[in-house]
Amino acid sequence: MTATPPPLISFRHTAKHFPGPDGGFTALGGVDLHIAEGEFTVLVGPSGCGKSTLLGIAAGLVEPTGGEVRIDGRPVHGPGPDRGVVFQQYALFPWLTVRGNVEFGLRTAKVPRAERRRRAQYFIDLVGLSDTADALPKTLSGGMKQRCAIARAYAADPRILLMDEPFGALDSLTRSQLQARLLEIWERERRTVLFVTHDVDEAVYLATRVVVMAARPGRVHRAIDIDLPSPRTPAVRLTERFTALRTEVWRAVHEQEPRTAPSMDRKH
Ligand SMILES: Nc1ncnc2c1ncn2[C@@H]1O[C@H](COP(=O)(O)OP(=O)(O)OP(=O)(O)O)[C@@H](O)[C@H]1O
């Protein structure tokens, strides 16, 4: 009998209360979530349910006020090279070229020049930016900037990629192209990914497991395994299984809405 490997990321009763007038606001009421190495976990849920806060806690950018998160058994108390982060508006260094941006983490980690070049080039090629490796960010489209941000995160060789709506600001065609590219990279590299999105279709297409969160306070509502074939191609979206899973996730997101919800966008 083989023993189940311990989870790489473990949220245990993870809570976050933001102090403020009128008692403040409890963004996360106690999240229990365990993520195995190599999984692609996508968090979805109504606006304000704490997806970004949970990701920020895993990144070590937000300190929980209750419970904890452990990476490989060790409690997280700050950012670390084991975790790469990609945000919706990723601030590339404007004075560095694509190559300079992708090499940045390797330079900080004092990786020797030849190895740095080789690793950066590998990920620049993988995200399809070979022709613009010497361009500055201001000359790139939004999709190209995000590809650069993804290459930069991967090149630093983290065990975990934390992505907060990385394609949220892109048009739908660019978005679906980048989803396919990200899946290809994930299939090759098998890094553990924790990804936040509002988009149910994107969640089902990318994930090995979709975690649906509920709000007020933020918590895990349901976890749904995505048993689509691997490797996935964009055509999987046309299958009955994809449609069934998308319906299941959509229902899980919407069944928890209060009937009198004033607006999906309201934060408090
Ligand atoms: N620094 C802060 N101070 C006070 N409240 C905060 C702070 N950061 C987040 N919140 C509140 O915590 C709740 C969760 O926010 P969070 O951004 O994690 O939600 P989300 O699910 O990612 O939302 P969205 O889908 O709209 O991006 C929200 O109600 C938000 O207003």
Radius of gyration: 19 Å
Number of helices: 7
The neighbouring-strand order within the major sheet is 6-7-8-3-9-10
CATH homologous group name of the domain at 1-82 and 192-268:
P-loop containing nucleotide triphosphate hydrolases
Mean pLDDT equals 90
Strand/helix succession = EEEHEEEHHHEHEHEEH
Bound molecules: adenosine-5'-triphosphate
Structural class: alpha/beta
Q: Tell me, what's the shape? A: globular
Number of strands: 10
Low-confidence stretches: 260-268
CATH class of the domain at 1-82 and 192-268 reads Alpha Beta
CATH architecture of the domain at 1-82 and 192-268: 3-Layer(aba) Sandwich
Strand share of the residues?
A: 15-25%
Instruction: Please state the oligomeric state of the protein chains shown.
Output: single chain
Helix content: 25-40%
Query: What is the CATH T-level topology of the domain at 1-82 and 192-268?
Result: Rossmann fold
User: How is the main sheet built?
Assistant: 6 strands, mixed
- Separation, N- and C-terminal Cα atoms: 49 Å
Pfam families: ABC_tran (PF00005)
GO molecular function, one term: ATP binding
Keywords: ATP-binding, Nucleotide-binding, Plasmid, Transport
InterPro entries: AAA+_ATPase, ABC_transporter-like_ATP-bd, ABC_transporter_ATP-bind, P-loop_NTPase
Description of the molecule:
This protein has 268 residues and is an alpha/beta fold. It has a domain at 1-82 and 192-268: 3-Layer(aba) Sandwich (Rossmann fold). The chain is built from seven helices and ten strands. It has helices at 51-59, 98-108, 113-126, 142-155, 172-189, 200-206, 240-254, and strands at 9-18, 25-35, 40-44, 66-71, 74-75, 83-87, 160-164, 192-196, 209-214, 219-225. It has a six-stranded mixed beta sheet, sandwiched between helices. The chain has a four-stranded antiparallel beta sheet with strand order 2-1-4-5, with helices on one face. A hairpin with a 2-residue loop joins β4 (66-71) and β5 (74-75). α2 (98-108) runs parallel beside α4. The longest helix is centred in the last third of the chain and has 18 residues, at 172-189. It is globular and about 50 Å long. The protein starts with 8 loop residues before the first strand and ends in a 14-residue tail after the last helix. Mean pLDDT is 90; it is low at 260-268. Adenosine-5'-triphosphate binds next to β2 and α1. GO terms for molecular function: ATP binding; ATP hydrolysis activity. It comes from Streptomyces clavuligerus. Keywords: ATP-binding, Nucleotide-binding, Plasmid, Transport. It holds the Pfam family ABC_tran. This is ABC transporter related protein.
